[in-house]
Amino acid sequence: MFITRNLNKKIFFYIFGMNLLFFSVVFFISGLCSYLFDDNYLPFIISFLFTAFVGFLLAYRNRNYTSLISKKDGRLLIGLLWLIMPVFGALPYMIHGFSFTNALFESYSGFTTTGASVIKDVSIMPKGLLLYRSFTQWVGGLGFAVFIILFLKTMRNGANNLFNAEFNSIEKEKDSPHIRNTVYKIFTIYSLLTLFCFLLLVRGEMNWFEALCHSFSTISTGGFSVSNGNIGSYSTYSQYVIILFMFLSGISYFLFLFAFKGKWKRLLKDEQLKFYVFLIFFFTFFLFFFEIFFKNYDFFSAIKISLFYVVSIVSSTGFDLQVNSLGMLPTIIFIFLMFVGGCSASSSTGLKIVRVLVLIRYIPVSLKRIFHPRAIIPVRYNGKALRDESVRLIFGFFFLFLLIFLAGAFSFSVMGNGFIVSLSLSAASISNMGPIMGSIAEGFSYGDLNIVSKYILMVLMLIGRLEIYAFFALFSKSVWGRS
Hints:
By secondary structure, the protein is mainly α. The protein is 67% helix and 1% strand. The protein contains 23 helices and two strands. A two-stranded antiparallel ribbon has the order 1-2. A hairpin with a 2-residue loop joins strand 1 (380-381) and strand 2. It starts with 8 loop residues before the first helix and ends with a helix.
């Protein structure tokens, strides 16, 4: 299919093996949870043994790898991992009795932090399986590159290429000269956010199991819940805790590092963060007045519902309060916000705010260039002039994103879904926020979709999480061809 190239196969198989070994631990922990709740833990034991065996075999046989990963290799390695790992992740679902398609759908939805589920009644599902679902989101929210870099030996710029393949941003920032130190700090921030979220949730009405699952889903901006009513089943206290951590999870990890170092000026001047906060406040108040005047909600309910949904969507978490009949205007706003997403270098997905900012700022620059064709007028971000090449890549990304969204919506419409449902399905999938569909289309269930629709959704999920250029690189002859 592709032109043969000198791909560093040994390091790929070693990395893949180490990821399987790590993930076998997730199977073991989920099996232990099933045992504690007197559920069937055999599916996890089988998955653990099989995955650990394959992982050990691959890692051991390729342990003497060449310590070199090019930029192309980095993108291919990350892309292939995102393509293959969810297949292994589907094992427990299949052993539990899911069809292959439904198992694969649930697995891809978890790893890509989409949160769409074919399970109609989570109350009858084994606790270990529910923990496992949330665990896959926690792993996917951080990304495979983080775990790879922590596993690998020192290599010639390989860790940098892997990191840049996973965290796409205009500003390729590093907190320290050694990328491993930066990755370790990001992992620490991610883990601490999870711990604090868990501790605050468990102080409310949630038990330790519910608090742990929702902490995993919140910090990863995933959206899986262990309740049929999603977050609407819990108290106002728990809902506000989740709002807080959804908001924090949509912020760039590098801004947390600046904050911990006391670089408050850098934090407060960051244009992406300011626009992120502005979006949330603006649309929260807009929806608040809409709920007050057109839906007759009381003051506090209107504030909570508006803030919850805006933060949930902008952060790309997709948690739902399952409020009936939000109205057409909020639905249109939700679809718009799905495109925007959170900050770059966070667990959020979507276009990312940094790209939206560049697109907005290009408008006055392009007008000035028309009237002053010889003038050098760059697009600026955080006070720095961007190269035209970077701006062109962002425009290309935006138009591809829009084209894929429209193609997805058209496909769902052809398959018999309504206009708004088709638009929402496509937007929610490519932006990785599945649960919100419950409020947009009352009575909607992913389990009722046909097989073709589910596979289209899986492709959209993967494109949204991996990002467009990295996804299409997997199918490009120029990337697979000889350098």
